[in-house]
Amino acid sequence: MRIYPHGFALRTTLVYAAAAALWITFSDWAVLLLVQDVPAAARLSIYKGWAFVAVTSLLLYGVLQQWMARLKRQLDEQAKIEVELRQWADAFNHCAHGIAIGIPATNRLLACNPAFAAMHGFTVAEMNGRDVLTLYVPSDWEHVRRNVAIADRDGRVQFQANRVRKDGSVFTVQVDLVSVRDANEALLYRVTTVQDVTERNRAEAQRRESEDRFRAVVENIHEVFWIHDPSHIRIVYVSPAFEKIWGRPCAEVVNWDSETWLQTLHADDRERLRRVVQGGTPEGYDEQYRILRPDGTERWVHDRSFPVKDGAGRVVRIVGVAQDITERKQLESQFLRAQRLEAIGTLAGGVAHDLNNILAPMLMAAGLLKENITNEHDREMLSMVERSARRGADIIRQLLTFSRGVEGSRLALQIRHLVREMMGIMRETFPREITLIDQTKGELWPVVADATQLHQVLVNLCVNARDAMPHGGTLAISAVNVEFVAGDAQLPHDAPPGSYVMLSVKDTGVGMTPEIMERIFDPFFTTKDLGRGTGLGLSTVLGIVRSHGGFVNVSSEAGKGSDFRVYLPASRAEVAEPAAEPAEPLPLGHGELILVVDDEEPIRDATRHVLVKQNYRVVTATDGKEAVTAFLDQRDNVQLLLTDMMMPQMGGAALIRALRLLNPQLKVIATSGLDSHAGDGELAELGLSDILPKPCGPKALIESIQRALMRN
């Protein structure tokens, strides 16, 4: 656009001059031809001249007016363009990103802004005219050429490359390259916008490294790390430990909503956790709950969540850690069970004391009466009473040992004795719908074992068999001698070949599926209803058998029953069979005075009768205080103290210490309804001649007194 058209003035002047000359020349000739009167012609010429001036002035005014308006428009447009150019120049020069314009034909810089020059360590003047390719590291040249070709073809391309500063240092740039063409598609310029992304890339690399480290941690810990999106109410991530704990693939849980997750929880915990989740828990939660795996197994989980907030305090993510605490819960259960057993043991101790006090006079009286009765039938009846009392005492002793968790000594014993005892217990306690069969026959090899523990094995197996037959059936116990050689199919790889005694407990109950059989020895695994089993019975059986060097084999079929076979190493040791009591009469005393102290009147009376009958003198007392008084009355005559250890007011130990102060040489025999080995240290300190378990018969009592009195 021309703002000052120099040819316009010349053309206007020439047109005006030509028009005026023609007008003057031809108008004057016309006047002379038309008007002959000279004065009139003169006047007409004047009028003609004024008319010419007026017309030409108007025409000139119009032309000049149009020209001035056009000139003003051109000046305004020029000013606007100059403002825009200044703005673009300011933007170009002050842009934080480097901008450069290159000439495609020479591949050199036409212009660049200060940021572009400073980025490379040059001034603008130093940059202009430089070969663009030399700004890049040589190893990136081919990469740059490929992207330039893309820009020339498509009009634009973005890429990253490494450039070199004036001092030789290398930095990474993000390049936005635009190829500019004219209306004829001819390539005019290449405009490059460059941003230094060295720090950004370094930060991104550090972030990725941090993410990789974090991912390596969360994907290798035993706990489940999870992320929840509260805006979409979806789980967006779970760590691989989820598969181990929940038993489900991680891909399955991603995008689960809360309700779907809640369905994996135990029904008894589901509603509680639903209230927790729906309540929002702005500060997170700390909960323990049970989950059900697809295979039906139950696991305990400790789950903690934490909110992640943005700068405005809005919760954008909820993260959490879920830990499998099943083993901890099992240990807690074992601890509580141990506490219950301890409480039962304490209770059993008191019950055992009371029951033994009941059985003691029965045993004493039966022994006394047998000596005075000659009728064989009556003597047999008394023997039955005596055997029953002893059996009751043995059962109480076993209960006390088991409830206290005391491991008895391992001795050579016969399995058939345990089976016979177990059959007797089952006949008295098991439902009548269950038929009991003892198939133990022949001479069995001895086994070296803890009788109490083997009794526990039998009890657990038989109780399980009973529970497997709720509507009745057959329970058979058998035992046989077995010889194994290396390679036998029934011999486990870790069991040595040799001689074993096999004890079998077989039932016709509901049986087991192969899936259940794989887990029956797992602690706390049970198929019984809640409250009917702890899941520790068979694991206890396996532990006891293995501790004796044996092993357990099981065969079962659903609907047809089960057969548990316990193999125990045989021993060549001799079994101590119970000896028959001699028929000789009990030895008589020589009138020695014995102080008998017991808070149970029947025991005092029965003991007094036995001692008097055997020619002993007797003084009785109901407790320690009364015994001290009685001893003071007869201190020079009392030769032996027979005292119960558990009495009100003043116990046996306190009584013994008190009387020893009065007579250090006093012989003392203690009786106790508890374990005779309990408190061995204290009993040794008391210097007892003997300690008799309650109940005891006349023979054991008299023999103990004889031994004590014969000692110096």
Question: Would you write up a description of this structure?
Answer:
- It is built from 21 helices and 22 strands.
- With 712 residues, the chain is α+β, with helices and mostly antiparallel strands.
- It has a five-stranded antiparallel β-sheet. The protein has a five-stranded antiparallel β-sheet with strand order 7-6-10-9-8, with helices on both faces.
- It folds into five domains: 6-91; 95-202, 2-Layer Sandwich (Beta-Lactamase); 219-324, Beta-Lactamase, CATH 3.30.450; 415-569, 2-Layer Sandwich (Heat Shock Protein 90); 593-710, Rossmann fold (3-Layer(aba) Sandwich).
- The termini are far apart.
- It is a multi-pass membrane protein.
- Residues 593-709 form the Response regulatory domain.
- This is histidine kinase.
- Residues 350-572 form the Histidine kinase domain.
- It comes from Opitutus terrae (strain DSM 11246 / JCM 15787 / PB90-1).
* Oligomeric form: single chain
Report low-confidence residues grouped into runs of 5 or more.
none
CATH topology of the largest domain, what is it called? Heat Shock Protein 90
Please report which band the strand proportion falls in: under 5%, 5-15%, 15-25%, 25-35%, 35-45% or over 45%.
15-25%
Helix coverage percent of residues? 40-55%
Q: What is the CATH C level class of the largest domain, in words?
A: Alpha Beta
* Broad structural category: alpha+beta
Number of helices: 21
Structurally, the number of domains stands at: 5
Cα end-to-end separation:
147 Å
How would a textbook summarize the main sheet? 5 strands, antiparallel
User: Mean pLDDT, rounded to whole units?
Assistant: 83
Number of strands: 22
CATH homologous superfamily (4th level) name of the largest domain: Histidine kinase-like ATPase, C-terminal domain
User: How are strands sequenced across the largest beta sheet?
Assistant: 2-1-5-4-3
Any guess at the CATH architecture of the largest domain?
2-Layer Sandwich
Radius of gyration: 57 Å
Coarse shape: rod-shaped
Enzyme class: transferase
Catalytic activity: ATP + protein L-histidine = ADP + protein N-phospho-L-histidine
Membrane topology: Multi-pass membrane protein
Protein name: histidine kinase
